[in-house]
Amino acid sequence: MARRRTTTRLGTLLLLLAALFAAGWYGHDVLHAHPAMAWHGVPQAQAWQPVTWTRVLRNNAFLVGWSDLRGNPLWVKYRLTAVPSDAPRLRRPPRFERDWRALNSIGHDDYSGSGYDRGHLAPNYAISRLYGAQAQLQTFLMTNITPQRPHLNQKAWQRLEEAEIDVFAPRYGELWVITGPVFDQDIQRLPSSTRVEVPDAFFKILAAPGGGADGRPKLLAFVVPQTVKGNEPLDRFVTSVDRVEELTGFDFFPQMEPALQAQLEAAVDPAAWRLDEVAHRPGRY
Known about the structure:
This protein is of the alpha+beta class. Helix content is 32%, strand content 22%. It has six helices and 13 strands. β8 (189-190) and β9 (193-197) form a beta hairpin. α2 (124-131) packs antiparallel against α3 (133-139). The radius of gyration is 20 Å and the shape is globular.
């Protein structure tokens, strides 16, 4: 009987220690790790509803707002700088991997035969060149992947990703990017996996913290539909951050001073970014 009581107490103590460790880890992520990886705050749903509920997943070089309900990352946020001249070029992994943190555990083969590409949100090329092999592997987790039509993924989206790492990050020294899917009310799912909803469009928000002439931040936002041919000029897709927030239900810079936020998020000014210089560039591949 005494041995049984000792075993029970030991089990209770281990459970308590595990709970304290989990609470400490969660507190570290929320209070320290997440803010350091999210310029002006982690994106927040403007009003609670199941379709915008996310769990924040921290990777080496980017944060993911993952939706177990929709089987999609609803936003991804990462920081870019100019690529060093001696940065290695890493080989692209052959497959995408399940993420143990996802409750619905979507895998590489869930997309097979669907007609949709496995579209990166945190991009393989930029993350691998700036942050190394482990960060690159994390871009191949399925929690960073969303269904994209081939002409979008391989053409228009790739051209946007090239502009942000090849042009805007070197020009401004530091560039924050938030990107994700846009859904309408007509829910469509992958024919190969009903656990994955198919977005109708994708957004990308670029933030240059000191990019303005007066040293203030400036923002540039895009919404690109799935139906693109891929060779359209990129400035055709420019919109305001306010519009992206309206479409998605998220506040992307919740810690920004309200008056500044209102001004920056209402602006539609591609000329301030000299977007015309890259709008017609073909893709790298």
